User: Fold this.
Amino acid sequence: MKILLNVWNRLSLNGLEKGAAESYFQEIVFLNRYILTIGLVILAYVPFNILILGFSFLFTISLYLATLVFVMLLVRFKLYVLARAHFILLTNLFVFMLVLESGGLLDGQLFFIPISLLGIILFKRSVWFIYGSILLSILLYYSSIWIAEVQGPMISFDESKIQMIKGISNLAAFLFSIALLFSVRHVTRERNKILKQQTEVISIKSRELNESIRYAKRLQNALRPDLKELNKYISGFSLLYKPKDEVSGDFAMLKEIDETSVWVTTADGTGHGVPGALVSFVCASVLNRTLDKMQDASCSQVLDRIAREIEGVFNKSSSEEVKDGMDAGLLKLRKCEHEYELEWAGAQQPLIILSNNLLNLQFPFIQKMTDNEKLNVFQIKPDRQPVGKYDYRLPFTNHKFQLNYGDRLIMASDGFSDQFGGVRNKKLRASKFRELLIDTYNLEIDVLASNLDEYFERWKGEVEQIDDVIVLSLQL
Assistant:
């Protein structure tokens, strides 16, 4: 008995021994077992058929047994879809031939009812195959009845044996239907069991992933510099920091030079979420190390050096070219007795200057953005290249200028101005962002970030935030 059970289990896994697709596993095991069951039942029936009906139907039965072996071979060669389709088609044709030979006298057409369920079990992921198998069974059912009525039986029967064969046929059709219904129930239960297991695995993985992201967020927050040190050098500052996801690719950095000078940076690492956070971590590390070494350098020299180092970091251990890096604005601020001396260089991030003082910033790359007599708004153009790998790299442009006490500087990533929203679901755009900065100029610097955040949320509405946002405002 144990040997027979081992043979049964081995044949049930026909075609699945070595790396079969998991998505087909249940259907193929079911197909193998059904072929074995039908084959055994038919072989057990053959002696009764010879005893009661002689050699009638034996050719059709033998031909069907041969097709079952053919289907097993298709499964063996992992032609799963072809094997299942052939099994349904040939089983329908087998019953069709039996009905034609018997002229419908033995009620063989009843087998089309359970056969129509085979598609549901064997093609549970393909609606078209299910509908097709049901339609085929229905067409052959009515066709067999009509042909049998027109031409009559192809084999003559002893009237005394017809009732016996009909009883056996009806019982077999009933048992076949019951077996299929139990199979559908079993397959459904197994499918739900697997689905539950997959859901639990996904839930565990999701929980682990969320815990990892939350931990990464804590690390990122812990590594962020305390911008309160800016208060040693300026009147005040305001930071709007709004990650798209739990962790962010945008960051701000403060690096003290001496009692009167400080580096200030805002940067937008490539991407957002976890990839953006990894890129920003690399970029922030390179930036921090470079600023320590180059305290007397200009902003443009620092960005040039960082660009080379970031390119080296991302490409030294990879066979693929990596063009990740960051957009950034680097400001060097020196507080003097009556004014501020500033240097700035930008990589695809402009510097916006707002002042109600009379400013004379006429050198190249500086645009005056408003004709308002009471407020001067200037924008220093950045270089149109990132800090990182770039095919057409040029040295960054260094800008030196003086500003007065009370002037305001805005350093921001493009996340705010690129956000979709409003009535027409359009981008906010840089011009609208500058108008907002002009409208909020008279607000105290301490409340500026919250006002910008409220405007951003109103503009965004129900639209998904598309990128990380950072806006650093400095009041000199």
Remarks:
- The radius of gyration is 39 Å.
- The chain has two domains: 2-202, 228-475.
- The longest strand covers residues 325-335.
- The domain at 228-475 is CATH 3.60.40.10 (Phosphatase 2c; domain 1).
